């Protein structure tokens, strides 16, 4: 996969040299190019922003530098043999970035990121490139960052770990929290490693039993506990067909029951802690 990032803070993308993404690059599975947007500014102050039409606070990133930067980035990529670019525009007003979006992007050969500072980029830029390639405007959560660079780090890491050969063990993301499939959208439960006793705290007996069926069931029960506690919305939205008899027993113990539509909700008679 090729990734281009155009930014006014190239140094903000330094973490892409580290850890999983850094290793994927070193292994040749990921080709990351970071470009300084100011290289396409033309006045002596390297200006890339201007005041918003209609008034109001803040500054808007100008069409000129972005247009030239993206034209050049596209031309260089095509020249190097890259194909089928997708433009990924991080913005708090984008669609939520989820594991499903990460999986979709990981199947593409070429991503171009346009993290913005100030109040965002003149809308005509995305409108223009949307006539040439798919454009995904994405937000990484319901809070406001000073710019999209941190979102580029987040999205790149989520995508890179899904690339073939980047995680040693393909099974390691089959049971991720938010992985698609039968385990759909349960959070992962607690994990333990050696030593077997630490400050008076032991390991649940089942994990030492060697009984794989019981261990799998225990893990799923703990996943239900944690999901009910941290993300009850995931249980409410889940397709109840994904829940077997044991799942339903666990949900009942946790104070959840199926409503008339089959979906699960908190049992109003259950006692709160
Ligand atoms: Cl992608 N950008 C900014 N500036 N803030 C955000 C965001 C992105 N996602 C959530 N908040």
Description:
- The protein is of the alpha/beta class and 273 residues long.
- Helices cover 33% and strands 16% of the residues.
- The protein is built from nine helices and nine strands.
- The protein has helices at residues 19-26, 63-79, 99-106, 123-129, 149-160, 205-208, 212-230, 232-237, 245-253, and strands at 2-7, 31-36, 49-50, 60-61, 85-96, 110-113, 135-139, 256-258, 264-266.
- It has a five-stranded parallel β-sheet. Strands 3-4 form a two-stranded antiparallel sheet.
- Helix 3 crosses helix 5 (149-160) and helix 7 (212-230) crosses helix 9.
- The longest helix is centred in the last third of the chain and has 19 residues, at 212-230.
- The chain is elongated.
- It binds 6-chloroguanine.
- 6-chloroguanine is lined by residues 90-92, 139-141, 143-145, 147-148, 151.
Question: Biggest sheet, in brief?
Answer: 5 strands, parallel
Rg of Cα set: 23 Å
Q: Mean of the pLDDT scores? A: 95
Shape: elongated
Beta-strand level of the residues, as a percent range? Answer: 15-25%
Oligomeric state as shown: single chain
By DSSP (H or I, 4+ residues per run), the number of helices equals 9
Placed side by side, the strands forming the largest sheet appear as 2-1-6-5-7
Given as residue ranges, the uncertain stretches (5+ residues, pLDDT < 50) are none
**Helical percentage:** 25-40%
Q: What small molecules are bound in this structure?
A: 6-chloroguanine
- Distance between the terminal alpha carbons, to the nearest Å? 48 Å
Q: What's the β-strand tally?
A: 9
- Output the structural class: alpha/beta
Q: Give the topology string: H per helix, E per strand.
A: EHEEEHEHEHEHHHHHEE
